[in-house]
Design brief:
mainly alpha; single chain
Length: about 170
């Protein structure tokens, strides 16, 4: 149902109706409402699915050995990994911004990710600069979709990975 909601959201925009989502999912509106009591709950479900997907991607990219910077490198690789266009589609972003719980969910996820990178063995300033750069990359992906070349993205990713090779302060 969440995949159908995403398709309907992209096709019809942030004002997509629950009827349209149900039709896309091949279920009745009542069946949809059984799982998601409102459009907002459906969008929260999309948010949670994205966070779950991102977390699973980070976990899959963790280096097997417990070495400094492994969580940070996994977050860098996950941020730069190819992803489906859903989360950078203007209709989806607009719909997400209209959900009051978004900020709360973002805060919880960001706190979890920050704890991972802060306990990673890198100097706090080094970890902070990398985390802020990843935030910037994510924001750029949302605001300036497809305007950056793959080569430039790879270069940025490689620079951030290089910053994890040492554990001390940057300056």
């Amino acid at each position: 149902m969440l995949a159908a909601a995403a398709r309907a959201l992209i096709a019809q925009g942030p004002n997509v109706s629950l009827d349209a989502v149900a039709k896309e999912a091949g279920v009745s509106k009542g069946g949809l409402l059984h799982h998601f009591r409102s459009k907002q709950a459906l969008i929260v479900g999309l948010i949670e699915e994205w966070f779950d997907h991102y977390d699973a991607t980070v976990e899959s990219l963790l280096e097997p050995e417990d070495v400094p910077g492994r969580w940070t490198r996994a977050h860098i690789r996950a941020t730069f990994a190819p992803h489906d266009d859903l989360w950078s589609h203007p209709s989806v972003v607009t719909a997400l911004l209209g959900v009051p719980e978004l900020q709360q969910r973002l805060d919880v996820a960001a706190d979890r990710w920050r704890r991972q990178t802060d306990s990673d063995g890198l100097h706090p300033h080094r970890a902070d600069i990398i985390s802020r750069a990843l935030d910037g990359v994510t924001l750029a992906d949302l605001l300036w979709r497809g305007q950056e070349t793959g080569e430039k993205r790879e270069h940025t990713r490689d620079l951030l990975l290089k910053l994890t090779e040492q554990t001390g302060p940057l300056v």
